[in-house]
Amino acid sequence: MATTEVEQHVKVETEGGVGWIQLNRPEKMNAIGAVTRRQLGDAIKQVERDESVRVVVLTGSGRAFCSGADVTEMAQSGDGGMRTPEDVGNVLRNEYMPMLTRLRTMPKPVIAAMNGPAVGIGASYALACDIRIATPEAYILEAFVNIGLAPDGGVSWLLPRLVGTGIAYEMFFSGKPLQAADAHRLGVINRLVPADRLEAEVRELASQLSTQPRQAMAAAKRAVNHALESSYEEALEFESYLQEAQAASPEFAAGVQAFLAKRANKIK
């Protein structure tokens, strides 16, 4: 396994076509501060650009996936005073937004291995992934209201599309968590697995996906993202465009040949 440790707060590993990004502040439940943001941004760019990486996994260390922004740090500016509202907005626009957009749009499947709670901006990272596998102890918490803030990190767009507006509003207004079992029932979490099986289950899925035609998976991701903001007719047209492009690809030719060979063998 080729291993690169990005200083202290984020670890990156690549193995067998899978890029693993691990938040590595277990003593702070993987809270995200300025250093973590820089390192996480670099890690996401690294796995996206690495041609050997076909699937990406995002996870945390210790007992949490991510406990959200480091509120102690968020409340202070570089000189020890309170951050201005403009500082908060600029961090969201200039640092979080590019990372979250990259996760949602990179042409590779992204799996969140939720080893524990995903809170605030941590929940935004989990929800920006394509697939979520979690332990029963995990939960999703949008507690912005408890510190007098509105939801951020794209969660006002993502969460209602996953759970409906009613549940999203209740979470935003009450600051109460969505437990893993309920998130699984609602389809937010794909699978619930025991903590001691989480890594093995994620590795198995990531390994399976790493053998799938990469352009076809990228096209499927583009189709879903486009459809979320399109009419039915627009989605049909975009699918037609993608299928036309895929039909001209080596992946399609190889897939058809493999299918025909398999059918010929069955007939024999």
Can you tag this structure with a few keywords?
268 residues; alpha/beta; 2-enoyl-CoA Hydratase, Chain A, domain 1; 7-stranded mixed sheet; 3-stranded mixed sheet; 50% helix; globular
Give the topology.
Blueprint: E1 2-6, E2 10-15, E3 18-23, H1 34-49, E4 55-60, H2 71-74, H3 85-105, E5 110-114, E6 118-119, H4 121-128, E7 131-134, E8 139-141, H5 155-163, H6 165-174, E9 178-179, H7 180-185, E10 191-192, H8 198-210, H9 214-227, H10 232-247, H11 250-267
Helix pairs in contact: 1-3, 5-6, 9-10
- Total domain count: 2
Structural class by SSE content: alpha/beta
- The CATH first-level class of the largest domain comes to Alpha Beta
Spatial separation of the terminal alpha carbons: 42 Å
Largest beta sheet, briefly?
A: 7 strands, mixed
Gyration radius from CA atoms, angstroms: 20 Å
Helix percentage range? 40-55%
Q: Residue ranges: pLDDT <50 for 5 or more in a row?
A: 1-6
Main sheet: strand order? 1-2-3-4-5-7-10
**CATH homologous superfamily assignment of the largest domain:** 2-enoyl-CoA Hydratase, Chain A, domain 1
Second-tier CATH architecture of the largest domain:
Alpha-Beta Complex
Q: Any idea what the shape is?
A: globular
Strand content: 15-25%
| Total helical elements | 11
CATH topology of the largest domain: 2-enoyl-CoA Hydratase, Chain A, domain 1
The average pLDDT is: 91
Beta strands, count: 10
Quaternary: single chain
List SSEs in N-to-C order. Answer: EEEHEHHEEHEEHHEHEHHHH
